[in-house]
Design a protein that fits this description.
mainly alpha; Non-ribosomal Peptide Synthetase Peptidyl Carrier Protein, Chain A; about 55% helix; about 0% strand; disordered N terminus
Length: about 100
């Protein structure tokens, strides 16, 4: 089982948001490794500047994210996903709104 598929861990209410963000980061890290062979990232890692991903790489990454989380990312939202933290925050907000 790869890291991207090990996202279902739950915790106590007090740490739910913190762990959820950490789990999202871990999933993005695993997906980036699967798609682009990149291991060392932080929340501030820029997909283009720091990782030298081209448009095809970014499209492949976001497609893998969509498949993993079972959601579609509208093209209007794609333009704002420049750093790992942007993807984590976007997913967190989308998943929270899906629970409501």
């Amino acid at each position: 089982m790869n890291n991207a598929s090990e996202m279902s861990g739950r915790s106590g209410k007090g740490e739910r948001n913190k762990l959820s963000e950490r789990n999202l980061f871990n999933a993005i890290q695993a997906i980036l490794y699967d798609v682009a062979g990149v291991r060392n990232i932080t929340m501030d890692t820029d997909l283009v500047r720091d990782l030298s991903l081209n448009s095809f790489d970014v499209a492949s990454l976001l497609n893998a994210v969509e498949e993993h989380f079972g959601m579609e990312i509208p093209i209007r939202d794609v333009w704002s996903l420049n750093q790992v933290k942007d993807i984590v925050e976007y997913l967190s907000a989308r998943l929270k709104s899906a629970k409501s």
